């Protein structure tokens, strides 16, 4: 079966910025979150997939077609939501809807209408008269209406109010029930990532990590609240110590083994939040063991 997206040995430099992706394959029916600090290269990564930025080397294939090739038929299978809606200011949502419906054979009018209703999007106002949040929602409605197999979303919830964000997340999850959609999403919102993603890829020091299963990543970390401060400065698996007695481990079995063998009593044991794990990976350069 042809995969929605495969990437091999891709490198890109812009001035002193470098981005490297060794090998990634995205499977149908999955949502993958791309996570990185500001300026890490998430948008550049997405733009390369859409052939809006050309990679210096390596291959990117969308549904088996090279994005740099002459055959551009793959473009009708992908909807890409950039961070801003460019060139649409003089048009109303209704005019843009008409245009997209003509351009995309897979356009789903009912899906579009349902999304607009759910997120309370006015279609009769010109884009330049909409608030940034409503503009983002209209952009999303247009991309969702395309009903493509692959959906690439660059920080879609950044300007959204809380009810709209919840409705949007719910809508995406319902959309995934068909099993034939693939979504890539860049987000800084731990809650979005927690609710949506099956897989995560991080951009660490200019390099995109392998694909990590979200739940496996979460369960590979553990917080141990000890009754006493350990007698050594670092115990096996320990990656961080707070309040002298709280140990964050990325090898919980090893840590637990040491604590048991050395009679160090545990007051409590917890799975850390996804937000804490993301912080460790991005800010402390924590190596991923999964
Ligand atoms: N047109 C450009 N000219 C020069 N440098 C650029 C250009 N586009 C991107 N860059 C550089 O590429 C790097 C990655 O930028 P990119 O926008 O991909 O990051 P990002 O992870 O999406 O950031 P954010 O989270 O802030 O949206 C940055 O260091 C940026 O300065």
TrEMBL record:
Highest taxon of source: Bacteria
GO molecular function: ATP binding; ATP hydrolysis activity
Pfam families in the record: ABC_tran
CDD domains registered for this protein in UniProt: ABC_DR_subfamily_A (cd03230)
Domain ABC transporter: 5-230
Keywords, comma-separated and alphabetical: ATP-binding, Nucleotide-binding, Transport
Protein's name according to its UniProt entry: ABC transporter ATP-binding protein
Phylogenetic placement of the source organism: Bacteria, Bacillati, Bacillota, Bacilli, Bacillales
